[in-house]
Every structure is written in structure tokens, then in C-alpha cells.
């Protein structure tokens, strides 16, 4: 898998580059600002780009803006945005109307290389990766006086894991449930929320996240 990395902190950038390469990824470019990333993606699109939210020169949202431009101009390039803080409005903006090949994680989440590798693999496969710390406030906001109030506590737990991009198998492991039980909960969630049960994991993530954004 070919990865491009945009991170202004030289030590963090070098360390992450080394970890990625040791884990079998090819780091095609590791740059310190958004314009350099955009130029690298334009010249030789990677499988996925890892982008810090705030980057030079203004340290505002240059990284997020670059991620959105990559998504618009190179839809087959996956994008993983990293942030120091939970910023729901930025995550929702990134997910847009088509949360495929995209992810939003807190930097603290990538302390374990296995978690980062799993996120990149899921993104390149067409999935969405959302930090669990972001799913919780979205769930709370959506439930207040809304259709989520129709769900049981267990169904809410399953929905939260679905919103993170988890497969049924992963939900089984997380909640210690049988596959048949998880399948029943998923069907009930779609029925109660009037969401299309297509049987496609990526489409269900799209449906769930679209609902939570509302």
C-alpha cells in the first residue's frame, strides 16, 4: 500500500514514516505542509493520504482543506485525517455525502501501529473509519428527542460500533455476541430508523453516518 503523509512536526513525521515502513507500507512522500501534499498527490496519486488537520502556514484548517480537495479531485485516493482534539464539525465536513475511503482519528489513537494499519486497510478497501471518541457525542446529539430514542441500549451499542466502521464480526467480538444476535440487532436498527438494509457494510456505514449527521 502506497501512503503519503503530511505532518508539520518533523519528529512525528519521521517517526510515523519509520513505523509505516517497518509495517510494510510504502511511504511515497512525507511532507510538512498542505501545498506540498497536494502537489505530490497530483503528480503520483497514492492509495491513501494521512493529513494533519492544522498545518502551515496559518495552522488553521490547511490540512482539512487539502483533504477535501484530495477527496474532490482524486476520489480513488483514501484520506485519513488526524487531529489532536475532537472536532465534530470538521469530521462531519470531511465525511460529506459519501463517507467512503475516508477516516478521522485522534492522534492519540495511533499510538498502536496495529490500529493505524487497520484503519488504513479499511479506508483503502472503501470503508469509513471514525474515532470512537467522536461517535459518542454524535450518538447523544442524535438521540435527544429523535428516532434514536426508539432503540434499546444494546441496539445503541451496536449502532455506535457500526458508525465506527466495524463489521458484524468485529461487533461480535466487542460485545461478546453471536453472529445471529448481531444480525438481528442490525436488522432492527435499520427497521426502526427506516434505513435501507442493503447487506453492504460500506453502504450501511454511509446510511448510519448520514443519519447521525442530521
Automatic annotation (TrEMBL):
Q: Where is the signal peptide?
A: none
Q: Give yes or no: UniProt keyword Ribonucleoprotein.
A: no
Q: Which InterPro entries does the record match to this protein?
A: CheY-like_superfamily, NreC/VraR/RcsB-like_REC, Sig_transdc_resp-reg_C-effctor, Sig_transdc_resp-reg_receiver, Tscrpt_reg_LuxR_C, WalR-like
Which regions form coiled coils?
A: none
Domain HTH luxR-type: where? 144-214
Domain (Response regulatory): residue spans on this chain: 2-122
SMART domains recorded? HTH_LUXR, REC
- SUPFAM superfamilies associated with the record: C-terminal effector domain of the bipartite response regulators (SSF46894), CheY-like (SSF52172)
Keywords attached to this entry: DNA-binding, Phosphoprotein, Transcription, Transcription regulation
Q: Which residues carry this modification: 4-aspartylphosphate?
A: 52
Instruction: Please give the name of this protein.
Output: LuxR C-terminal-related transcriptional regulator
The scientific name of the source species is: Actinomadura yumaensis
Q: What is the lineage of its organism?
A: Bacteria, Bacillati, Actinomycetota, Actinomycetes, Streptosporangiales
Amino acid at each position: 500500500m502506497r501512503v503519503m503523509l503530511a505532518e508539520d512536526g518533523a519528529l512525528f513525521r519521521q517517526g510515523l514514516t519509520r513505523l509505516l515502513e517497518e509495517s510494510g507500507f510504502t511511504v511515497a512522500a512525507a511532507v510538512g505542509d498542505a501545498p506540498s501534499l497536494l502537489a505530490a498527490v497530483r503528480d503520483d496519486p497514492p492509495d491513501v493520504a494521512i493529513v494533519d488537520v492544522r498545518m502551515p502556514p496559518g495552522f488553521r484548517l490547511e490540512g482539512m482543506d487539502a483533504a477535501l480537495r484530495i477527496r474532490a479531485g482524486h476520489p480513488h485516493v483514501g484520506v485519513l485525517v488526524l487531529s489532536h482534539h475532537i472536532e465534530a464539525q470538521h469530521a462531519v465536513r470531511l465525511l460529506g455525502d459519501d463517507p467512503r475511503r475516508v477516516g478521522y482519528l485522534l492522534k492519540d489513537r495511533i499510538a498502536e501501529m496495529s490500529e493505524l494499519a487497520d484503519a488504513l486497510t479499511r479506508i483503502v478497501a472503501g470503508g469509513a473509519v471514525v474515532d470512537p471518541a467522536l461517535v459518542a457525542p454524535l450518538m447523544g446529539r442524535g438521540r435527544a428527542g429523535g428516532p434514536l430514542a426508539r432503540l434499546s441500549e444494546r441496539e445503541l451499542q451496536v449502532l455506535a460500533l457500526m458508525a465506527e466502521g466495524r463489521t458484524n464480526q468485529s461487533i461480535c467480538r466487542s460485545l461478546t455476541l453471536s453472529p445471529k444476535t448481531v444480525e438481528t440487532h442490525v436488522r432492527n436498527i435499520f427497521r426502526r430508523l427506516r434505513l435501507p438494509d442493503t447487506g453492504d457494510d460500506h453502504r450501511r456505514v454511509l446510511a448510519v453516518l448520514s443519519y447521525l449527521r442530521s
